[in-house]
Amino acid sequence: MEQIGIKGFPVSQNGQDFIIGKVSIDYLLKFTRYTARVITGFDDNEQPIYNDHVQRKVEKSRVSKIADFLINDPEATFPTNIVLNIPAVAIAEQRGNNDQVEIIFDDEVIRQIELAKNSDVETHVYVTIIDGQHRIRGIEEAIDRLKKEADNNELKKNRLESLLNIELVVSFFIDKSIEYQAMIFSTINRTQKRVSQDLVSSLFGLTTEDTPYKTALEVVLSLNSHPSSPFYRRIKLYGGDYSKKTFSPPLSQATMIKNIVKYISVSLREAENDRYRKRKELLKNDSCKYLPFRRFYAEDRDDMISDCIYYFFNSVKRNLSDFWNYDGVSKPKNILQSTVGFEALFRIMSKVMQTNNISVFTKDTFDEYIIKLRDIEFGNTEKYPISTKGKTELIRDMEHVLFEN
To answer: What 3-state DSSP class applies to 58?
Structure first.
């Protein structure tokens, strides 16, 4: 399959990073398209999770006007940016070169778009539209109308070719949460006309109430910003450079949020329904699954979630420093410096809490357990490769040490 990707210039505004680039309409429609469905996250198999309560519908009259504009005006232009979000699962490769960033999309991203073109089956659109859904839907309608008339009309054929070659200015955000996407949409449109919070909420499936995802995001931002935190500047909140010279930390904001939410809600899919529930409703748990953060969330004790993660991983940092400490530049040298290592430790943290009925956290709470792990060969990449297989092996060995009885 042909490699499809984007190139652009990294831009930083008030500590937030994104990429500015240009692509032709024909090329843009190889990796994204309009869809009313809202992706809120990804499950353990990297399949999209949708908000079944919400659809980002467009105004048909507005779409038709854009299509008419493109078909009838030979000087039609779109000078303002289309804003897209690229989730981490959609990226096969990312690298920097001479102040430029290049991203190559995973083949599945392109395959799903091709399936959508050739069938009526609803497919996954991984690269989602934050702002510009009316323009892209109008472009799609204009192309469809011109294609129907192009066979017997040379003027329409030429107009279609010209339309496909129009270059669009595009801003690409990397791996943003649904809350952040909604904020971007609201900010962009507020500069043009007043946008109500109800509109933002309905378009992105957000509620004005607390949600597990909002709580998880706040916890992650707190852990990343506190100088004494084991995750201080260790979390990749936004897009980074994956070249050999400046390899960015592999632990992403999305990964941490997903793992925190999994300990609040029964499943990532059920977390979508929890968006619409009051916190106290989560005190009830019909599942037999142990959810260490659920009660904290239900009782408005978000600080306990932060404390738990903070103290557990600080214990890891103190007692397994040779393997945990990481310069944030070089490629991870052992499994504890990687995403799968974090996920393995997160699993052990939960099991330690469950087995020992831990619900209060101090500096020394987890030391007696982490100290027992010192004899594990975390640096042995043959035994613990930085992969799902290595994570499974590591979890098994840590459980054997801690819970062999």
So the answer is: coil
